[in-house]
Specification:
Blueprint lengths: L1 H11 L6 E4 L14 E2 L11 E4 L6 E3 L4 E8 L5 E4 L4 E10 L5 E3 L3 E3 L3 E5 L5 E3 L2 E2 L4 E6 L4 E3 L7 E5 L3 E4 L9 E10 L13 E15 L3 E3 L3 E5 L4 E5 L4 E4 L3 E2 L5 E5 L3 E4 L8 E4 L3 E4 L8 E3 L3 E4 L6 E3 L4 E4 L9 E3 L3 E4 L3 E7 L2 E2 L1 E3 L4 E6 L6 E8 L8 E6 L2 E2 L8 E5 L4 E6 L3 E7 L4 H25 L1
Parallel strand pairs: 1-3, 3-5, 4-6, 5-7, 6-8, 7-9, 7-10, 8-11, 9-12, 10-13, 11-14, 13-15, 14-16, 15-17, 16-17, 17-18, 18-20, 18-21, 19-22, 20-23, 21-24, 22-25, 24-26, 25-27, 26-28, 27-29, 28-30, 29-31, 30-33, 31-34, 32-36, 33-37, 34-38, 36-39, 37-40, 38-41
Antiparallel strand pairs: 1-2, 34-35, 39-43, 42-43
């Protein structure tokens, strides 16, 4: 009896490993039904067993009892699901998709060692609850629609591959989350597992153009320290959504970091990264007390009341000191700034107060602005309560790269009244008047005889 028991134990432990292929010919979909497998002498329940889901049978296998396999491969040529309430143990931690169909595992999964889930196709791999038991789970996908809908427990998570993985549960894992390629998509802070009790490195973004994609308005826990491990990292915020993060972004001297997506990212921490930041889409806002290094503003907007390093606003970019929603004025402190033709300063007025760009002793470079490619100043807010002749300093700096000329700028006023732009070697100013300047009125009056004459000629032609 002892010998027989030992043999049975060894067999179930994987010494007598079997390569199983799903045939689905057993009359029901149960995992333990030996008629569903080839060979039909058993079913996958050993640490050395392998499983391939190939063509044949129905489109579902049901975990009616526990099962075990060292690897699970999907290559069925059609959609397939593994459901049921019993646990499937991936002893070797390996799951692979080798075609372009959709595969779903809603039965609970448990790993006994670090493993990799690899989707080599374009179909969706969707998995429910996973317990890696303290191991590392690497999810490598080329698909744009992979997802974990259940809870990931007790793990560290690595997202690799050019595709997208979406996390949607309130996960409980406590290890780091690393995005080394493609996109890891979340909609809440809890998707990233349990936040650390004290500030520490918790999110690593770096590798082959990795993206942390955020689809809903949320606050990212400030204790989740973010490290940029290589150049090209991005945080993407969906349009109409706002993400607030008061933690620290660190890492990668000489690299680059991009704020992408049409939404708003608000940073409130004293960020230590040396990466060149790009505001390429939507808004990148630095809150009061927060700071970031050098920024290039391309088709996006840089705003806030915090501090930035050197700033370049290239064609299509906008700078907007003040609140993230553009309703409250404020001061944005920066290093030297370079303005390009085709870019915009969105300036907010509120009575006798207004926003300010403060460059301190640093230079404002206008060498890339010409009368043929002007820099736009867009005035928003309200002039209710603004005093006649009130002068606003909208930008102050230590020096100007070339002499001020009004024909380098276009001024668009959406706030009411009239504003005149002036400048010198230390500041740009807007002066308010409730009525147009006399010179403007004079030009208008001087034009009336010409308008009248043109009208008389037109009437004569009609007669």
């Amino acid at each position: 009896m002892l010998i027989a028991s030992a043999v049975m134990s060894l067999a179930q432990g994987g010494v007598c490993a079997t390569d199983y292929t799903w045939m689905g010919a057993g009359g029901n979909a149960n995992w333990s039904n030996t008629g569903n497998w080839s060979p039909s002498t058993g079913y996958p329940n050993g640490s050395g067993d392998t499983v391939q889901i190939a063509a044949g049978g129905g489109s579902t296998a049901t975990m009616d009892t526990g099962g075990m396999t060292s690897s699970l491969t999907f290559q069925r040529g059609g959609d397939f699901a593994i459901d049921g309430g019993s646990t499937l143990i991936l002893y070797g931690g390996t799951l692979t998709v080798n075609d372009n169909f959709n595969y779903t595992i809603s039965a609970p999964l448990r790993m006994s060692s670090s493993g990799a889930f690899t989707n080599n196709g374009s179909g969706a791999l969707t998995v429910g609850a996973i317990d890696p038991q303290g191991s590392q789970l690497t999810w490598n996908t080329s698909s744009s629609s992979d997802a974990v809908t259940g809870i990931i427990n007790n793990a560290t998570l690595v997202k690799s591959g050019t595709g997208t993985l979406t996390l949607s549960a309130d996960n409980t894992y406590t290890g780091k989350t690393t995005v080394s390629a493609g996109t890891l998509r979340i909609s809440s802070d809890s998707n990233l597992g349990t936040a650390p009790g004290a500030a520490q490195e918790n999110i690593v973004i770096g590798g082959q153009y990795p993206v942390l994609g955020i689809t809903e308005t949320m606050t990212l826990n400030a204790k989740r320290g973010i490290t940029l491990s290589t150049s090209g990292a991005s945080i993407n915020v969906a349009g109409g959504k706002t993400v607030t993060y008061d933690g620290i972004i660190a890492g990668t001297a000489g690299g680059s970091f991009s704020k992408s997506g049409a939404g708003t990212l608000i940073l409130g921490g004293v960020n230590t990264t040396n990466s060149q930041a790009y505001a390429s889409e939507g808004k990148l806002v630095i809150n009061s007390g927060g700071s970031i290094g050098n920024v290039i503003v391309s088709s996006g907007t840089l705003g806030g009341t915090g501090t930035a390093g050197t700033v370049a606003i290239v064609s299509g970019g906008t700078i907007m000191p003040g609140s993230a929603d553009g309703t409250a004025y404020g001061t944005l402190t920066t290093g030297a700034e370079t303005w390009y033709g085709g870019s915009t300063y969105d300036w907010l007025v509120a009575g006798n107060s207004g926003s300010l760009l403060d460059m301190g002793v640093n230079q404002l470079n206008l060498n890339n602005v010409t009368s043929g490619s002007r820099f736009a100043i867009k005035i928003t807010g309200t002039t209710t309560g603004t005093s006649e002749g009130q002068t606003f300093t909208i930008a102050q700096y230590g020096s100007l790269s070339k002499s001020f000329a009004s024909d380098l700028f276009t001024v668009t006023n959406n706030a009411g009244g009239y504003f005149t732009l002036s400048g010198n070697e230390s500041h740009l100013q807007l002066t308010y008047s409730a009525v147009p300047e006399p010179s403007v009125v004079g030009l208008f009056l001087m034009s009336l005889p010409f308008v009248g004459a043109a009208g008389r000629r037109l009437c004569a032609k009609r007669r």
